[in-house]
Amino acid sequence: MTTTKDFAAKNIAICADSIWATLGNGPSKTHVLQNVSLDIAQGQWTSIVGPNGAGKSTLLRCLAGVIPHNGTVTLLGQPMHKLPHRERARQLAWLGQNETSADDLTVWDVAMLGRLPHQAWLAPPSAQDHAAVESALRATQAWEWRARALGQLSGGERQRVLLARALAVQAQVLLMDEPLANLDPPHQADWLAVVQALVAKGTTVVSVLHEISMALHADQLVVMAQGRITHQGPTRDSASHAALVEVFDQRIAIHSIDGQWVALPRTDHHVYSY
Fold it and tell me: 22 forms bridges with which residues in the sheet?
């Protein structure tokens, strides 16, 4: 049996063992994840990639404990299902797809929601809470709008505020599903800088990304197809690049440009006529 001490020695933040997840009921029931197992390294950035329908977001939701599934997930050495909700919310922060919040809340109040796991019932925010929220809003360049209502913001601006809410938790593990949605290239670069700073401080980051070139900045790559993991390994390894090219049917090519790995589309693979 793996103990908390074993997890610390192996530097494992999250362990998923034999995860099965389904959607629908009866004849429409679909196995979205099929016997998936993986370890997420502590203090590193792991990016989950694959084609549409591969099960990436479902896997991330299982790791976050927000949807039912078969199998076990262990967070920092403790079985996820045994962790009290507040303790889990302090250890793991979550930014899902299409996250919402009340449009009449101010940006400051939305970000302050990230501090709820640290606050006693009905207690006012502490100085530490205020400092954490300010730091998060400044990191996402949302500080100047802190008094504005969320409903007054564009899609990209809202996404930055919701990221600030997740950052304000100051959790040891941060899971993000399509965090670059609605962000323009400069703010995607800002997001990358935030992630790299978090990892430098020892935070474990797991992201699901469609932006393959951005995912190639991660430390570890998890490649998925048809509800299974087809490859997991260091992002810079040629085997990871080969697995990535294969899962996208040879429609992309991985190149090194100015010291960065980038994925470019291959337009010569298929020719379509309209």
Answer: 31
Q: Which residues are CB-contacts of 100 (< 8 A; sequence separation ≥ 6)?
A: none
Q: How far apart are CA 37 and CA 15, in angstroms?
A: 8
**Calpha distance 244→223 (Å, rounded):** 7
pLDDT tens for each residue of 166-188: 999 999 999 999 999 889 999 99
**CA nearest to 166, candidates 209, 202, 201, 203:** 203
Tokens of 93: 């922060």
pLDDT tens profile 4-57: 444 444 699 999 999 999 877 766 678 889 999 999 999 999 999 999 999 999
Is residue 31 within 8 A of residue 191, CB to CB? The reply is no
Q: Are strands 173-177 and 92-95 parallel, antiparallel or unpaired?
A: parallel
pLDDT value of position 9: 43
Ordered DSSP codes for the chain? ---HHHHHHHTEEEEEEEEEEEESSGGG-EEEEEEEEEEEETTSEEEEE-STTSSHHHHHHHHHT-S--EEEEEETTEEGGGS-HHHHHHHEEEE-TT----TTSBHHHHHHGGGGGGS-TTPPP-HHHHHHHHHHHHHTT-GGGTTSBGGGS-HHHHHHHHHHHHHHT--SEEEEESTTTT--HHHHHHHHHHHHHHHHTT-EEEEE-S-HHHHTTSSEEEEEETTEEEEEEETTSHHHHHHHHHHTTT-EEEEEETTEEEEEE-TTS-----
**How confident is the prediction for the chain on average, in pLDDT?**
90
